[in-house]
Write a structure and sequence with these properties.
222 residues
């Protein structure tokens, strides 16, 4: 496609947002901006430095957060202050820290500005929890992914197992429900469905079926 376009994807954790975004980037040969990884990187900073996640502490450390994303054939590489932390940010502890950090207005402003800069002049796909409502409200295609809590827990447990983390399925479920509540009730940019977003329930869809559906929707709009 000659026209530059933006695909924005929102939804709760483990609904398939990252898988969809990565595959769309690959098939369409466009840039994937992993916004969730950016918040995880920020959460990682506070966890590893044993800093309580209060608004005062977060804002006092804003200038110490240098987050960057690089891309190669292996995917997205996440850097925090020059260190590759890609393999260290996919734990449940960091996931919850990312949710806590994302409540803060100042850190959201910092990362949203960076995300918009990365998308300047490029065709991009982004996923998160406020991409369609705040970061790119004028995106060419807005998608909102949902799935049952049961299938989401299974997916998250499977993903963690691949990384060598064995967790109880009920604990995973509780963690997802806790994060859902935090993300949907936070004061700054809560998770919600944009009025013009297309809802895709991925509960019974394969990854390929979800991608095919998204590309069909994109072709109808571009």
């Amino acid at each position: 496609m000659d026209k530059k376009f933006i695909i924005a994807i929102d939804g709760s954790a483990a609904t398939g947002k990252s898988v969809l975004a990565k595959e769309l980037a690959k098939r369409l040969n466009i840039l994937y901006i992993d916004t969730g990884a950016m918040y995880r990187a920020a959460g990682y900073y506070f966890v590893t430095n044993n800093i309580d996640l209060t608004n005062e502490n977060i804002e006092a450390n804003l200038d110490k957060l240098n987050i960057d994303l690089k891309y190669n054939s292996e995917g997205t590489i996440v850097y925090l202050n020059g260190e590759d932390i890609t393999s260290k940010i996919r734990t449940e502890e960091i996931s919850m820290a990312a949710s806590d950090v994302s409540k803060n207005k100042k850190i959201r402003e910092k990362l949203v500005a960076l995300q918009r800069k990365m998308a300047d002049g490029e065709s991009v796909v982004l996923e998160g929890r406020d991409i369609t409502t705040v970061v790119f409200p004028n995106a060419d295609l807005k998608l909102f992914l949902t799935a049952s809590i049961e299938i989401r827990a299974i997916r998250r447990k499977r993903d963690l197992a691949k990384k060598g983390q064995e967790v109880d399925i009920e604990e995973v479920r509780k963690s997802l429900e806790k994060r859902d509540l935090q993300d949907s009730t936070r004061e700054e940019s809560p998770l919600k469905q944009a009025e013009d977003a297309v809802v895709i329930d991925t509960t019974s869809l394969t990854n390929d079926e979800t991608v095919d559906m998204a590309i069909k929707l994109l072709n109808e709009r571009i």
